[in-house]
Amino acid sequence: MTKKFFTITQNFVRSIITLVFMALGIFQDNLYYIVIGAIILGISEISFSAYNKKITKQTKGTEL
Where, by residue number, does the polypeptide cross the bilayer (predicted)? Predict the structure, then answer.
């Protein structure tokens, strides 16, 4: 339970940071902030999908 909560919290914090970088990039007309935000978003999406695959593998064996 705590590991799942930690992962959800970690992804939530990453998305907040991404939104901050995107907003900075839009308001300051700086492309670097937008690129950094997109990279953070990509990393969080990859890690979240990997976590979901791991959970499905763990539960798949018990359902059958």
Answer: 12-27, 33-51
The overall pTM is greater than 0.70: no
DSSP conformation class of 64: -
DSSP string, 1-64: -HHHHHHHHHHHHHHHHHHHHHHHHHHHT-HHHHHHHHHHHHHHHHHHHHHHHHHHHHHHHHH-
- Cβ atoms of 14 and 37 within 8 Å: the answer is no
